[in-house]
Design goal:
Number of strands: 19
CATH topology of the largest domain: Diaminopimelate Epimerase, Chain A, domain 1
Distance between the termini: 18 Å
Strand content: 35-45%
Structural class: alpha+beta
Shape: globular
CATH class of the largest domain: Alpha Beta
């Protein structure tokens, strides 16, 4: 095994993340490596967060985000929290600015260990989400699953959080729906030219909701940070909630919760939640061949 780089197996509310250290290198994690890692029970992941040297002044790193099928992703809030925890453990810094294909993400680790990520402004314009046809009001678009006179899911809110989302509002437990069956159909519906993350959301109060997500290119996921942001923003936009919402992710371990604030001052969405280090190792970014470090325990490290 040659040409290995450090990586950490981490999670954000159960969202399985591999943080790969590509700093000091010109190459990238290949789609073949991502697919090989995703196929291994020890390294299966939802997203890879590949940390590269910064490309823009004032940033700490450029982050490539890969899905488990080897495709590139535009945003991953849970993965960004994992990157912050890893780099904070390495450098002692608490505040970071990361460049991604979706823009600049600012993040900070708090004294209690939680991490806040500024996910930027939500995008509501139909052609920027994007949708395949024009909708004047994307808070409720025409899309449904099931019989036309009694649909199982219908009229989602559409929004981009750097990646496209459709949020379906439901009035019962989100775990009671067969999202494994509906998710692929909706993700790949022609209305979404770049496909979409599909979220079920049950509003439980003006300041709380429960969600479950079928993630684009990843399938059923234990958690999706950008989807929690999309649901919180859509809840406020449609008058179902206020602009500060506790989003309980039903499929995450112990039904973990993210705190989402859609700030009135600048329209930015701030997501706050935990990250967890599991173990570290080294990996060949070209092939996905890996080995685990012998030392166990400790904090996130690269």
């Amino acid at each position: 095994m040659a040409d290995l780089v450090a990586f950490a197996k981490m999670n954000g509310l159960g969202n399985k993340i591999l943080v790969v250290d590509m700093r000091g290198r010109a190459d990238r994690v290949t789609p073949a490596a991502a697919i090989a890692l995703a196929a291994d029970a020890e390294t299966v992941f939802d997203q890879i967060m590949a940390i590269h040297d910064p490309k823009a002044d004032g940033t700490d790193a450029f982050i490539d985000i890969l899905n488990c099928d080897g495709t590139l992703a535009q945003a991953c809030g849970n993965g960004t929290r994992c990157v912050v925890q890893a780099l904070a453990a390495e450098t002692g810094k608490k505040a970071f600015a990361f460049q991604t294909v979706a823009g600049i993400l600012n993040a900070v680790e708090h004294e209690d260990g939680t991490i806040s990520v500024d996910m930027g402004r939500p995008v509501f314009a139909w052609d920027r989400i994007p949708l395949a046809e024009e909708f004047f009001d994307t808070s409720r678009i025409e899309l449904q699953i099931g019989p036309i006179d009694d649909p199982v899911l219908h009229s989602p809110s559409a929004v981009s959080m750097g990646n496209p989302h459709a949020v379906f509002w439901v009035d019962r437990d989100v775990m009671s729906f067969d999202l494994a069956r509906f998710g692929p159909l909706l993700e790949n519906h022609p209305i979404f030219p770049e496909r979409a993350n599909i979220t079920l959301a049950e509003v439980t109060s003006r300041s709380s909701m429960t969600t479950r997500t079928w993630e684009r290119s990843a399938g059923l996921t234990l958690a999706c940070g950008s989807a929690a942001c999309a649901a919180a923003v859509s809840g406020a936009r449609t008058g179902r909630t206020g602009r500060k919402v506790a989003v309980t992710v039903a499929s995450s371990p112990n039904r973990g919760t993210l705190q989402i604030e859609w700030r009135e001052s600048d329209d930015h969405v701030i997501m706050t939640g935990p990250a967890e280090w599991e173990w570290s190792g080294t990996v060949d970014p070209a092939t996905g061949t890996w080995r685990r470090d012998e030392a166990e325990g400790g904090a996130a490290a690269l």
